[in-house]
Amino acid sequence: MSPTNGRMEKAIADFKSARERFELYEKFYLSVRGDARRYLESESNTYKIALRKIQALILPGIGKICPVCETQCCRLDDPEISIYIACTVGGFGLKDYLLARCNAIWPDPRYENAVKNLCPFWNSGCSLPTDCRSFLCIQFFCDKLKKNLDMRAVTESLGKLRTILDSFSIGKCMA
Ligand code: SF4
Ligand code: SF4
After folding, report:
1. Interior CA angle at 52 toward 56 and 117, to 5°?
2. Index of the ligand 2 atom closest to the CA of residue 128
3. Average pLDDT per consecutive 10 residues, the chain (175 residues; last block may be shorter)
4. Which residue CA neighbors atom 8 of ligand 1 most closely?
5. From the CB of 90, is ligand 2 less than 6 Å away?
6. For the chain, how many structural domains are there in total?
7. Which of the listed residues 11, 78, 89, 139 has the most CB atoms within 10 Å of its CB?
């Protein structure tokens, strides 16, 4: 087996488990009710406001360089890229899934993308709403993109988003 095939087999296996976890995240989201739901909605609102601020800083740069990129980064696995997406669906853990998913309409994941080594939300660009991204995705910038951004402002905004994510309580969503 070539190293490339071995990596891809691992990525596909990791992705299978990730898909199962992702489906459990959705079940959990649908079960949140009452005060727990109100707490989630409030935190989700705060997360999305912070995400929109970051997107306002980065979308102009993305619009400039990503459409003509020949090595786009939304792959499950690529040794050239510093993040590994395959052990998640869309980069989400439970916390950012709940915060991003709350009261939003999402496209169905294109799980068939996996055989092409692509994220299920890839469809000629990210198909998720711009304020519904995972922390893993939103904090990734390739070198080309960094050169087109005010990284000091972006880093500051990312810090605020991280604080919101860290303080969000899954336990309060179970109350
Ligand atoms: S962020 Fe970088 S690697 Fe990803 S699509 Fe844009 S230019 Fe390409
Ligand atoms: S969720 Fe969107 S930004 Fe993140 S890897 Fe998938 S297509 Fe790319």
Report:
1. 90
2. 2
3. 80 96 98 98 98 98 92 90 94 98 97 95 95 98 96 98 98 92
4. 72
5. yes
6. 1
7. 89
